[in-house]
Amino acid sequence: MGTGDLGLDTRTGSSVITARAAATFEPVGRSVATARSFVRDTLQGWGHSDVIDDAVVLTSELVTNAVVHAGTAAEVLCLRGDGHVRIEVSDRYPEREIPLQASAVQMSSPDREGGRGLQLCAALASRWGVDYSATHKQVWFQLDLPERSVGTRSAGPALPADLLPMADGRVRVAVVQIDRNGAITSWNEDAEHVFGYPAEQITGKPLTDLAAWPHTPGTSTGIADALRLSRWEGSYGIRGADGRVIPVYASHLRVRDTDGDPSTVCLLVRDHERAVLQTPLRGPAPDSTAQSDGQGADPFEVFIGAPAPDDLDGLLQRTVERARDMLDGDSAFLLLATDDETELEVRASTGLPSARQRFARVPVEVGPGRYGSARMPAVHEDLTQVPGAVPLLNGTGMRSVVTVPLKVEGRLTGSLGVAAEAPERYSNEEALRLQFAADRIALAVESARLGELEKLRRGSLSFLVEASDLLAGTLDRDQTLALMAQMTVPTLATWCAVYTIADQASEPYLSYVLHEDEERIDGLKALLSRIAPPDPVPTPGARVWPAPAEAAHQAALRTSMRSLGLGEPASVSSGIGTTLATASAVGGETVVLPLVARNRVIGMLTLGKPTDEHFRQEILELAEDLSRRAALALDNARLYSERMAISQSLQRSLLPPELPDVPGVEVEVIYRAAGEGNEVGGDFYDLFPIRDGAYGFAIGDVCGTGPEAAAVTGLARHALRLLAREGFGGPSVLERLNAAILDEGARSRFLTLLYGELWPQEDGSAVLKMVCAGHPLPLRLSQDGTVVPYAEPQPLLGVMDDLELYEQTMTLDPGDVLLCVTDGITERREGSRMLGDDGLAEVLATCTGLTAGAVAARIMRAVERFAADAPSDDMAILAMRVPGLHHD
């Protein structure tokens, strides 16, 4: 059932809805102001500033009825149709008295509490109505839009000359056009002058890439969202070509280009010239003595509104902008107190240099007396008379300032200030007005701050868990260094450098550098290599390291002088862009965290910000937690690398040196040790000269794999060489080796061994004397393709004390191949199948006419292809071939 203009279709009217926005507000007093700001920002974003005042007044009354009088949550829905906007306010109190006629509403007494909102609807709205259901009541109103072109703004009132904004010389208005994807398509001369980028360099890049402030101050949307609105204006920061953040005030208008595609035209001016573009404020300045009763317009509702409750950055930036406008100041700032209430951290400012923008810190107590503490309101008529009274304003040109504390339940939570360039601008009256505003915003700011901290802590825990998993997943030193840097950039810092210390007597060494812009890594590395590394102080926590910023600024100054012809010739100016870019990338705050593991400083983790940016305390605490984990991971990687190097060095000592050239005989060896990181296992081989014209060769297999088997390998290989060169024959050599193995006691292991002596002959053949002690028999490949075993099996070594071994003498004719392998070759398995002696013989039979190297390679390929799994046993191949008479 509806009341009001009965000709309206109460569903949404007959027109098509082109945009909608909705929000729900809890039944508390501050929801009225939040609802007003929601409607104001929605209509401002749609470009309908003409009807904002009426819509806000009506919304305020209807939401007040719901959340204050009815005590229920209120749902506000904004709809835009053809030529009108419609706003619906719903609550859950349907049993209230139903006004049956519009006239009944119009004739109600103005003093009557109920129905006043409906009276306003009747007076201000072009159409309105009330709809009821079993559980809801909805009051709606419609405001017709004036006939005008889309996006045009109504003109402001005529102002006296003394109230017009002051311009410093020519006002530069940057005109930037952005396509539907957010990429810049047009960049005028003023934009190039303000930001320093030539049009050809910036065209095609997203505007959001230049944005230094991630959220659009004054709204809950980011810049990317604002570009999609039909009309928007507000402040944000653009990073110039020199890396410095330039505060700008922007007006965005959504249009269609010549092809009919949506695009956005942006007008941007420096923030202190914002009056050139800013929509004139409506209505008189708020009265400092006014008190809000929850009805109608609240003069300080501008401080409680638009951002979502958890959008702290937007809330703070909106607050400082409205505070500046309220007191007609040149700048404003808002600082939040640390947990111990000893320092204040800059969280939002407007009209101040970018160095004062974010996370800079000032003490709460800066001097004696009440005006030296941020805990009390203070008015300074002329800062030149009390230098240092407000550290944040040092060197800014501000002369007069009023600051007030933000307190919640008697606890200092922050400070709000407004400053002007002229002296004696503020008095106690302005301090009272600003304090009243601060009292209204303090609780909302603290709630949003606690919500941000909780969200940050949850994100920090997740970050540290993931970082620990990644660091625990590798023992490679270089990979650990890369992971450390990649986890900090860009999550915690813009750039990162890791210094390592080999031992207490060594200087820190620059081991790894990373920047979020890969093109700046080389310049950053060159800059850091020219300055002394930070001192390896073991004190926990982050400490500021000014050297990189100072070096970067000096390098930029020298480059600028050379480019102007004041120093070196301008021919070196090809590096100017890189140097300036590096200076802007490194010119901000730099902190150093020690990497301490096992009570020793093993390095430093250095984190940096671009020009004029600071680290927030929560980020530094998170970086400290990460540095502890990273230090232990880096030290573990160091220990693993050292032990692996020792192990590999010892293993390589067990392998024979380069094989000697045997006249008239081709020799090829292939060796594979089982197990990751092993170079030597239980299998071994050797080939060495015994005396003139005689060579010893051996291939063996110690029971087992790994270091224990490798120890017996070293014993066997060195004993064979020593005994053979002492003139002992094959059986005597193996019998003495058997005794040496048994002398090892519990460390002894079984050993299969093929040992032989080789004499190349003048007729092209070779005489062999061999002893095969428990080893797979060698195979002979004749020129006709015949493969036969070429020795007889005898007992293995390391089992019995008394061995009676004998040697066999054979001859290899020209073209013959002798193949010796370990059981890792013949016992290669795939399920229940095994390669075996017969399989090996079949592969060897296909090698007729091949060189020794080709034979060994073909055998290994066949073994690897026989099974898909990695080998579980050591493998060794020794192939010897006597070349044919008519080739080689």
TrEMBL record:
Pfam family, one: HATPase_c_2
Segments forming domain PAS: 175-205
Record keywords: Hydrolase
Recorded superkingdom: Bacteria
Classification via CDD domains: HATPase_RsbW-like, PAS
SMART domains: GAF, PAS, PP2C_SIG
Name the record gives this protein: SpoIIE family protein phosphatase
